[in-house]
Amino acid sequence: MSTTKSGSVSARVVDAIRGAIGPQDGFTPLHKPTFENHEWDYVKECIDTEWVSTAGSYVEQFEEDLAEYTGAERAIVTVSGTAALHVSLRLAGITSEEEVLVPALSFVATANAVAYLGATPHFVDSEERTLGLDPEKLGAYLDDIAEVRDGTCVNTQTGRPIKALVPMHAYGHPVALDALQEVAERYHLTLVEDAAESLGSLYKGTHTGTVGRLGALSFNGNKTITTGGGGAILTNDDELADEALHLVRVAKEDHEWEYFHDQTGYNYRMPNLNAALGCAQLEQMPSFLDRKRALVERYRDAFEEVEGVTLFTERENTRSNYWLNVLLLDENVADRRDAVLAATNEADIMTRPTWQLLSSLPMYEDCPRMDLATAESLERRLINIPSTPTLVDA
Ligand SMILES: *Cc1c(COP(=O)(O)O)cnc(C)c1O
Fold it and tell me: pLDDT tens across 334-380, in order?
């Protein structure tokens, strides 16, 4: 059967997705939570025992489980992924009057966390190979505009120090961490990974979020596992982990009754109710990942013959969690993107474009950036399609 010659690209995409996921009742979301194990038992236990808030035992249990799952020395759970990123950047020593290199193609939290510290996001281009930061282009750019003075990278155009580099593993696909780490070392930048989308994704066998000095995970409702809302800071540095724990507990010194806070901390600690959900969800990761991989295989078959559209699949040396599946339209049909989005949503199949480049948002439009040609191209051509693990039978 040839779907390539007849019909519009939108009709071909609708047909291919339908072919891959089969008949569905009603609307198919991009990614909905899957609760099919101990979620109810653990959450009910919190309510039955009245341990619903941050002092409950699931909080530390979830941290231990996350450390074991990711291979990080320590995990500190927080109320959101954004909070985890905010505290990570603060622990990386970021202050105002400094710049932090972030991808232009990311969810807004990556830049917001920088702005919360009064610092300036500096936008970097992506590479089509990984959908994440382009190490070669970044290296060449820094050679051009930056120099290391007394062990600090300085942007010679703005005069401000550039202190950190924040790669983000887009839709679960690991970035080229080795090459980025090399750039970071050359320019004395602290590597902080935004691993919000990549729980379960590996780079050369190492879990994403554990390569940088700090890494941030998210357990928002649409992520691979959810705690309702939540996040975690990963680090292999015990001292940093203790500081993170202190900061997310409003920097309060341990004492039976005294209220002494040694700095301006944050009320960012994850409550027990959310951690209970997290423990139950994490137990299911292997099953979620297996089914998400089976779904990719179906999409791969369905899109193999579809002209003008490529399904993005994992790169060499990486293992993706396939959080959200990605279609890339060819340049010559990029102008059909909105037609594809309209046709699929009309057919009760939820699809979404990628994020608008952060460098074009009103609060960041004056921030420094390099040439963003690839990010701009991806912005015009990228479409997310339904990726919930239950689209494939257990
Ligand atoms: C989800 C996400 C975050 C954190 O989001 P929260 O909703 O605060 O948990 C951060 N960065 C990226 C790239 C994300 O996708």
Answer: 999 999 999 999 999 999 999 999 999 999 999 999 999 999 999 99
Residue 106 CB less than 6 A away from ligand 1: yes
Q: Is 34 in the pocket of ligand 1 (CB under 6 A)?
A: no
Q: Last residue of some domain: 252, 282, 312?
A: 282
Cβ atoms of 329 and 336 closer than 8 Å = yes
Condensed to tens digits (0 to 9), the pLDDT of residues 124-159 reads: 999 999 999 999 999 999 999 999 999 999 999 999
Report the Cα 287 to chain-centroid distance in Å: 20
**218 C-alpha to ligand 1 centroid (Å):** 6
**Which of 239, 264, 282 lies at the terminal end of a domain, its last residue?**
282
Q: Are 310 and 303 in contact (CB under 8 A)?
A: yes
Count of structural domains, the chain: 2
